[in-house]
Fold Sphingolipid delta4-desaturase N-terminal domain-containing protein.
Amino acid sequence: MIPIDEKPTVRKSKTGLPATIGHGPMKQEEYNPKDEYIRVESVQQHWIRRKIISEKYPEVLNFPATYLPSAFYVLGLVSSLVLTAKLLQNSPVWLILVVAYVFGATASHALWVLIHELTHDLVFEGSFFNSVFLLIADLPHIVPAGVSFRHFHRLHHSFLNETYTDPDVPVPFENQFFGHTVVGKAVWFCFYSIVIALRSVFYPLKNQSPFSMWLVANYICNITFTYLVYQWVGVYGMTFLVLSSLMSVGFLLHPLGARWIAEHFAVTQSEQETYSTYGIINTLGFNIGYHNEHHDFVRVPYVYLPKITSIAAEYYTKGLKYHTSYWRVLYEFLNQDGFTFASRVVRDPKFK
């Protein structure tokens, strides 16, 4: 087990919900992260807020637990990426880069959001068909990562911001080598897909191995897909798919990668450990910005999350700070000296 960094001041929650600094959209002058953990002893704020909202607004418990149209979006996005790769098979490199940056990354990121829905079994009833469509949604990402994501994302929900059982919390090594310079943070951001894969090595819990037959199927499907599609679209077409996949998680400083910073980095000096993002990203990315709402009501499909925000606005848009631009988050992350990988609200792990 990696030793936990010693950080001063454990902040105890007195009300059950975290102390916040204001509410509403983050303004430029309000980004005030520090290069240190904000340690809390309280349980996840999401568990508490879900209980409070459910008791005050019981109608939030009546939303359907699945949303079948997501399956058709998976098929449409996979098809659109493959067909675009075919159209670009004889195109100049500059055009491939532009199309990958504008369209490919957006579609690939949208598939990651749908993989997220499938991870929580929010498309079909029962896990089997959710797992099958997760494999389909992961095909254009080339590297088989969907099943591993499902495993570690579920740990993220169970052990939110616990050092070091939440796979979303960066390890000290990341902060020491990448967290204190613009170049270091830019390199970390561009290669986040590699970083998260390597980080997962440090997080396996007892009896929590990611290995399964679904993981084997993930590798078989992606390798087969890559071989067959390569035969059809050629080198340039595959280049488009690879670039689209990498850019969707931050390669070449694509702003969509800032999602992984915006969601849980402590940009204000408060106990707020999760931030939503409201804006156009939710139109392009199946409401992925409604992140507080998702953690509060994990069994609610993305299409109903804005309704929860509207019903319980005093706990979201009128009760918490939130982002409106991934570009702004990325800019602040790269340019603020105090904005490092230690800018997190964290708690000690349940299991040491």
